[in-house]
Write a structure and sequence with these properties.
Elements lengths: L16 H7 L3 E3 L6 H5 L12 E4 L3 H13 L4 E4 L15 E4 L6 E4 L4 E4 L5 H9 L3 E2 L10 H7 L6 H4 L6 E7 L5 E4 L5 H7 L8 E8 L1 E2 L2 E10 L3 H13 L5 E9 L5 E9 L4 H13 L5 E2 L2 E4 H6 L10 E9 L4 H11 L8 E6 L21 E9 L5 H15 L18 H8 L3 H11 L14
Parallel strand pairs: 2-4, 3-4
Antiparallel strand pairs: 1-2, 5-6, 6-10, 7-11, 8-9, 8-10, 12-14, 12-15, 12-16, 13-14, 13-18, 17-19, 18-19
Bound molecules: flavin-adenine dinucleotide.
Flavin-adenine dinucleotide (FAD) binds next to strand 3, helix 5 and strand 10.
Length: 460
């Protein structure tokens, strides 16, 4: 079991719970509440943290009250959006969790093609509301992921080649800062803060609403082809050459996984979001012909179908351990190591993904936003998943061994939202590279006492 080492500064805070409760429209959940255990459960079943209280906020005023109370009582504070962060930053031991999951308002302006959404909205809910108007923005590939943590870390998804990272589409945000102020961050207002929250995570305040630019996205070509694991070397070499010529409208991931009936497979999963679907069919034809695959599940479908396709592979409550990094290139040697390691996989639930990044997400200068993974073509991620707590050591060991074996092929960059909680400050620095010092400076302005520290922490 991995638990946090971050504790409240005051081990015996005089908790004026009733005083806090009286200021809230939402709910204060204490350990004796019958909904306490349900409320502290997050996506990764391995995270078993026991906060002193959970404040289920109903509105911005509740967030301000909770921040002020946490600061005055010197509580360790964690912030929960969708609760999907695998490292478990949404929960803490002993302190206060500011839980935004009930803040779910979402308002689309179809004329301006914009949306304002609160931080409890999940990607499935967001996509449903925006697709009613034929609109979308780059978002998470699983419907239960929160828009908040994903956007604040950068945000990658099927539309990133055409429309950039999720944070590239952020127009403005409303935040509650560590001193309880409500601020707007946009290109015009507090532009330093606006730069920092586009990738800098939850370090600068609690975002209480996000305004995004949306794009016209109708039916797409999506789905996957499956190949037998024996063909992994050929499939990954094909994936490498095919993706090198992919237009911005086409994003492809390669994945090693096990089918529900226990057969190891290599998948090529894709989304073509261009408006001319006939052109898309022509472009992806070689991918469907290659092999040929054991199964071809590619077709024209609503974007919502694509966005829920992977849900069953990553359900809530399984045990999970992640390791990720960007690759310099997907060399023959790297492919050989991937083959050798995935053949040793210890859990049939586990997935190894290689995500192709190109187009709009890479056409942004590295210092334009705090999110700086703009140069790499391939993002490598091992998502280990299993059912029982006793199995944890064996799966964690396999994941670490695989990651070690891949190190010769890594660039210096890693996506902050893929970091686990055992990686240390150097890896957070690696996620921000040359942007780290600027982030530190902005942290010193908005959160000098490091009130928001249950995260991939930028130390002020
Ligand atoms: C199954 C699965 C699929 C995923 N798929 C993708 C994907 O396709 N693309 C991608 O980019 N990422 C993906 N991720 C990673 C995802 O981006 C992160 O897990 C992200 O943290 C999820 O956001 P959340 O709101 O659910 O997180 P939470 O666990 O609720 O929060 C994580 C952290 O974000 C911060 N935070 C959350 N809300 C706020 C807020 N309102 N204000 C300030 N800080 C806040 C806090 O520091 C918090 O501790 C996936 C994760 C999982 C588990």
């Amino acid at each position: 079991m991995i638990t946090t080492t971050k504790k409240s500064q005051n081990p015996n805070p005089i908790l004026a719970w009733e005083e806090l409760r009286s200021t809230l429209t939402g709910t204060l959940i204490l350990p004796d509440s019958e909904i306490y255990d349900k409320s502290r459960a997050i996506w990764n079943g391995m995270i078993d943290r026991k906060p002193a209280c959970i404040v289920k906020c109903a509105n911005v005023n509740d967030v301000v009250s909770a921040v002020n109370f946490g600061r005055e009582q010197q509580l360790l504070v964690a912030v929960k959006g969708g609760g999907h962060n695998a490292a478990g930053f949404a929960m803490c031991d002993e302190g206060m969790v500011i839980d935004l999951s009930n803040m779910k308002e979402i308002e689309v302006d179809p004329k301006l093609r914009t949306v304002v959404a609160q931080p409890g909205v999940l990607w499935g809910e967001f996509d449903k509301a925006t697709q009613e108007h034929g609109l979308a923005v780059t978002g998470g590939a699983v419907t239960t992921t929160g828009i908040a943590g994903l956007t604040l870390g950068g945000g990658v998804g099927w539309l990133m080649g055409k429309y950039g990272a999720t944070c590239d589409n952020l127009l403005s945000a409303e935040l509650v800062t560590a001193d309880g102020q409500v601020l707007t961050a946009s290109p015009e207002e507090n532009p330093d803060l606006f730069w920092a929250i586009r990738g800098g995570g939850g370090n600068f305040g609690i975002v209480t609403s996000f305004e995004f630019q949306l794009h016209q996205v109708g039916n797409i070509i999506g789905g996957m082809v499956l190949h037998p694991m024996e063909k992994i070397v050929e499939v990954l070499k094909f994936f490498r050459s095919f993706t090198q010529n992919a237009p911005d409208e086409l994003t492809v991931y390669a994945g090693a996984m096990t089918s529900p009936d226990g057969i190891p497979m290599v998948a090529l999963i894709l989304c073509y979001c261009g408006h001319d679907l006939n052109e898309g069919k022509r472009i992806i034809a070689p991918l469907r012909e290659f092999g040929p695959p054991l199964a071809d599940m590619i077709g024209t479908m609503p974007y919502l179908q694509q966005q829920s396709m992977l849900d069953a592979a990553a359900p809530h409550g399984l045990f999970s351990y992640w390791k990720a990094n960007q690759l310099t290139t997907l060399s023959d040697e790297a492919i050989e190591v991937i083959k050798n390691q995935v053949l040793l996989v210890t859990s049939p639930r586990t997935m190894t993904l290689i995500e192709h990044h190109h187009g709009a997400i890479n056409n942004v200068a590295q210092d334009s936003t705090a999110f700086m993974q703009r140069n790499s073509s391939y993002d490598f991620i091992i998502i280990s998943l299993w059912n029982e707590s006793e199995e944890s050591p064996i799966h964690i060991e396999w994941t670490r061994n695989f990651f070690e074996a891949m190190k010769p092929f890594f660039s210096s960059g890693v996506y902050v939202n893929a970091l686990f909680n055992d990686e240390g400050p150097d890896r957070v620095r690696a996620a921000y590279g040359d942007n780290y010092e600027r982030l530190r400076h902005i942290k010193q302005i908005y959160d000098p006492k490091n009130f928001f520290r249950c995260n991939n922490n930028i130390v002020p």
